[in-house]
Request: fold
Amino acid sequence: MTANYEALQAIPRREEPYHIVVTAAHHDDIEFGVAGSVARWIREEGATATYVIITDGGAGSNDPDMARGQLVDLRYSEQMEAAARVGVHDVRFLGYPDGCLEASLALRRDITRIIRETKPYRVVCQDPSTVFAHRAYVNHPDHRAAGEASVYAVFPSAETRPIFPELLTEGFEPHKVGELYLNLTQEPTHYHDISSTIDLKMAALSAHVSQIGAGDDFENGAKKWLMQANRDGGSLVGVEYAEHFRVLKFDEERESWFKEETERRERETAAK
Reply:
């Protein structure tokens, strides 16, 4: 499916404080994908956030002299610094082996536990349906597994009492999430203007020195590429920089599929 960017809707501002859970397969996934939005939600809307980093990051180097345990410790430190730079101080590391993640029941339970504990209004995760993106990107299987486990943790696991009864024993009552945001998606429905926080996003990204280098390597590599990608995304919707999401709303009365499809077609027709 080709995204119709002219039909995308701006993410509305929320006036009351709220909590967000952001899940990701790897250290730096959040910084590449959604850190601009997280920074803006925190700075401008008073939100708080919990990051959930699912793998240990130990497969993030081909250097034969880099021991896996050393890399795991290094990437932990980089992720904590990256999160702090956008105002996130609650970071959970689940420690699943990097590079061979599966959307297991154990992983879904771990994410469900965090959702029930922190009670977020919004959950942000990677779109598990994305396999191929554009002409030259095969989505990492860890991304898809992380997204699948997160989606099913949001629904049905987090809000359904009989699922994972052991969590009830631990004291974690069911919680219904209000919104689910999918990033790394080929079917976006909404955009978020991150022009006011693009510098914070780049500052957070720069913490991942083990992955993207520092100095000129960073400036002329990952930073240059991502700035352009977010600039291009912004140009498609009439802002300077933007991130895109597929948004599912659970806090509104569900409309009929027919009305939803009719409205979608009307928007597409009007955009032509």
